[in-house]
Amino acid sequence: MRAAFMTGVDAVEVREDVAPPELDPAGAVLRVEACGICGTDARTFFNGDPKAPPPWQLGHEPVGVLESVGPDAVLPSGISVGDRVFLGSILTCGTCRWCVEGFQNLCEHHLLYGYDPYPGAYAEFAAVPPIATKNLIGLPPELPSDLATVADPFACALNGIEQLDVRLGDGVMIVGTGPIGCWQAVMARDRGAGRVYMTDVSSERLKVATDAVGHLIDDAWVAGDDNGVGELLSRTDGDGVERVSVAAPAKAGQQAALEMAAKRAKIVYFAGLPKHDPVSPLDMNELHYKELSILGAYGATHRQYRITMDYLDRRQDDLARVVTHRFPLDRIAEAFETIRSGTGLKMVILP
What we know:
Order of helices and strands: EEEHEEEHEEEHHEHEHEHEHEHEHHEHE
Structural class: alpha/beta
Radius of gyration: 20 Å
Helix content: 25-40%
CATH architecture of the largest domain: Alpha-Beta Complex
Distance between the termini: 10 Å
Shape: globular
Oligomer: single chain
CATH topology of the largest domain: Quinone Oxidoreductase, Chain A, domain 1
Number of helices: 12
Largest sheet: 7 strands, mixed
Number of domains: 2
């Protein structure tokens, strides 16, 4: 079969004679129809990751058809051989306190599909290991495979929005206009936000984002020297907004969120910082004197994945705009370069 391997930092090779994955008696094999490029994949490709030792097969947002299922595999109710499915990437134990309480994203022993020891799905066929079979979700018949690949990041964006707890009439500021920020703008509007604003340090990325979701937001601007704070305050009579989502891994954006927030506002830090530099200098007086609530959001639960599939199916016209590029497997290097250039939002590989 054909598969793409990261052979080093910033290096990828498509091989034609790769052995197909073996069927684990308790697992399955997926015939891949589409696989998205996640921000995690991009960071790994650009910077390397010890859990992706070259040559390594990335890809953890796969959609495809269950080609074969092992005799001992335990599949979710209603899933069987031949079904078109999405595979959720967060692999969980199912037995720790957090899994049992429904917060699978916080599993004490979680792993990530597409990282050691489980190769990913930038290939014609991909293994579904036993730990991942419970993550298989059937697709609505009319939901295209390329759009279905975004279920993973969309579910994560949904987690952030649920943490943000947007109320009817709230002003919402979204810092960062990548796919996560765009989907959160759509969901904030659906939840009844009175005003939705977006900002980004990149004018090119902001333009791509407003082309996709501009009809659903009130205004957007390039962050500038003050990280977009002045523009927001000028639109809110100096009050700020009730809800702020930081959907960009940037210390400047994290601090700007405190200044953008109205008194008693809620802020959700969705994007983490690089592991080698995770400490952010924040003005705690903003937090203290304005009585702000600050929360984090990471990953998604099984419930949020299920909600996501229905949401994607119902809102295809708006949500599909965020998938700006589709590439065949042999052009995967071009897909990564498009991400680096900031000229697109969501990239999908079609093996």
